[in-house]
Amino acid sequence: MTDKHDEFGLNAYFDAGRKAAQIPSGDLMARVLADAKAQQMANVPAPAAQPGLFASLWAAIGGWPTAAGMVTATLVGIWIGISPPAPLEQITAEVLGDTDDAYLVDLLPAFGDDFVEG
Questions:
Q1: SS3 label, residue 10
Q2: What is the mean pLDDT of the chain?
Q3: What is the per-residue DSSP string for 65-102?
Q4: Is 32 inside a domain boundary?
Q5: Does residue 42 sit within a domain?
Q6: N or C: which end of the chain has fewer CB within 10 A?
């Protein structure tokens, strides 16, 4: 035993089997290829129908989960717009300038003086 991978002495039998390998006939190969072609043609799926415009838009926005979130956000926005909470009314009044507390702060009081000086 010179080969360490051949511990059962089977390499001689495998070599003999490789030398005696038979090549299949042309007729057999033609029948096998014809059967394979028939199976391929039988398993061709039908072309899928193209989705319509509404289905494409529905898929683009994400379907039901996204639509439910958008509807919920819309309804909450309408609800807050019609009946805003009291703190929100105060913030809105300050932002829009309807209160006496809102005043303008000049962050650069001496900016115009730079242009006047020579």
A1: coil
A2: 80
A3: HHHHHHHHHHHHHHHHHHS--HHHHHHHHHHHT-SSS-
A4: no
A5: no
A6: C
CB-based contacts of 85: which residues, under 8 Å, 6+ apart?
Answer: none
Q: How far apart are CA 98 and CA 92, in angstroms?
A: 9
Q: Does some domain include residue 48?
A: no
Residue 80 falls within a domain, yes or no?
yes
Asked if 7 and 1 touch (Cβ cutoff 8 Å), the reply is yes
From residue 74, alpha-carbon distances to 13, 36, 64, 70, 77 in Å are: 80, 58, 15, 6, 5
Domain count of the fold of the chain? 1
Output 99 or 50, whichever has higher pLDDT: 50
Range of the domain at 68: 58-116
Cα–Cα distance for residue pair 67/48, rounded to 1 Å: 26
What percent of the chain clears pLDDT 70, i.e. is strictly above it? 76
Position 77 scores a pLDDT of: 92
